[in-house]
Sequence to fold (418 residues):
Amino acid sequence: MPTLKLTRRNVSGLQPAAKPVIWYDTDLRGFGLKIMPSGARSWIVEYRPGAGGRGVAKKRLKVGGGALSPEQAREAAEKLLASVALGKDPASDRSAEREAMTVSDLLDMFVERHVEAKRKAASAEFYKRTARLHIKPAVGSKKVNLLQRADVTRMHGAIAAKERGGGKFVANRALAILSAAYGWAGRNGFVADGFNPAAGVERFEEEGRERYLTAEEMTRLGAALREGETVGLPYEVDEDGPKAKHAPKPESRRTVFSPHVTGAIRLLMLTGCRLREILHLRWSEYDAERGMLFLPDSKTGRKAVVLSGAAEAVLTALPRVGTYVIASNDPDRPRHDLKKPWSSICKRAGLEGVRIHDLRHTFASVGAASGMSLPTIGGLLGHADAATTQRYSHLQVDPVRAAADVIAGRIAEAMRGE
Fold:
């Protein structure tokens, strides 16, 4: 039974052997690190339940995968051993919990204990919404250890076939979330290690979701924004509805949007920022003197945004109401979304199937088509990975061709006497 003080430095030098090996800690009795021949590592605790003694068989419990640091694993082990000293049997409790746990319970636990602790609030909300709308209705009532790959395959296909709220993209995301939940459960002992009924289910091929506005579409969008913030956009009323007789006259049926709504859309177009980066933007994060935004917590971490003159003009024109640049009904809370006004503006501008995130794609596509380098575009968008920007490479104008067009264009103008 090899022993070692389980510290970061000591465990980093341990190598796998031909058979599984458990290195027991010299300081905390029962705490150990199991190393498989494949190199996989897991932290374990061994104890004798009840009054203990050599007549009682030992039980072994996994306290986390190799991703945990020795300090984190030691803290978890100390808590488990303390509960044993108080008369509890964690292994039996976990076994009973696993037998009683449904897929719905697992998803809730996965989000609460893992996703919310490691991901941003918007990502956690996406996990919860996908689980609530798509995974739980299909397989949520099944016991975690009884779910079969065939069940997951049927769920995957059913989500893709949904007319509303489904599709291949959503089906693939639901499959990925379920697979991640089982992977986490295996690492923490809630299902058998390696048991994952979502693994091996073939994903659907997804069509590209990028949509770029043309110059003519941008002109129509600009016109709809100006109309929406001045005279308002027209709306329809169900003439046969119970409230139709109380509705305004047809010529008065218009919705005027606040400058914060139209300003948010203009800023999205003119900066390439993500929706939350604009909706959660505080006035304190805008440096007017340097023409910069300093975002403390974007999707990729801290981010500086260089503003164009057009974007600065939008910010200058916005009324300052409360903490946030895009004011909501509560001056101390950010606006939640732009779904309803964006839908009305798109309808008025004749922009079918355009998502608000496509404004970010449009910003990047204009830069690519103007001959800007991909690193420059990636810097403006705040991409952490250059591969993310590569999607716009097919839109780039060859600099040599662009130069040839300029030279030949001037020669042609001279020959035409212009």
